[in-house]
Amino acid sequence: MRSETSPATMSRQNYHHVVAALGAVLPGRHLAVALETHALPPRAAQERVVQRDCVDMVHGLAWQHGDPLLLARGFQRLHARQRLFTTLPRPPGDTLSGLLNFQRYLSLHSELGEMELHLGARHSRLSLHRRREFEGNQGQALSLLFSSLRLLERSGLSSLIRVTLRDRPGFEERVTLQALFRAPLVFGAPRDSLVFHNQALLRDSGGPAPLAALGAQERRLRRMRPELGWSDSVLGLLPMVLGLPGTPLSLCASLLAVGERTLQRRVEAEGQGFRDLLRQGRQGLAERLILLPGLPAEQLAARLGYRQSAQFYRAFRDWFGESPARKRAGA
Prior knowledge:
alpha+beta, five-stranded mixed sheet, 11% strand, 15 helices, 52% helix
């Protein structure tokens, strides 16, 4: 997590989408005046934009036009025109990888808050935790939640149960929100979140895995957060690459643009070997996925990157002291 004292930023690409979304619902002269008033360009030249400046502009326009959902409706129009974040790559692997990818790399696009993924037995939840400075910006949070849902649909998320919202809007706004999300809504909840069935969690999202794009995202994250260690990157990448063709070491090294031996040396310099990180990554993912009812042990083994079930069973007993069936029964 970045320091609360550092100013939150958003990517140039995300800023351009916000401007495009506002332009989809506002007369051009209104948007031009707002940009000039807040000293914001129609198209940013720098890589990152201070998010507070953009949020203040959106909040002012929403208040001026009496529409707290102004930005969210703009994103809806971009989505209807198939222009919502069209250049963002589809994450490799299954729907779970898509969720983990979105959670890990959200800050590359927006530092409005962080997403927390909680896997339950039958349904799971992706919740938004806003940064303290944006606590009062419900319109921005709704816009982020809406765009998050549409992006995750590209990763195979097709089993949305409901959307929970902290706000308690009036009747007209509730009707607009219902049309916006096209899902059951719960108001006055502790968190803004997306709740979905687990039935498609391990379903392949389709098409070839764009590993180059995943590597580019991780390297961008490392540049943005220089305090991020090599071990942190490996532990972040493993849940997304386990089960893909290739060894975990070769996949992680390729994504981080270093040689295998170089990666091993760098994580060892931080106090752990790659095998230790691989064990932690597999154990952590197994502990989350064992909750899923009806998941065959063989499928779990394959998702953890084991080619032989016997290896998986031995490792599982070493981790938890019991078999997968007993672990699931006691969960």
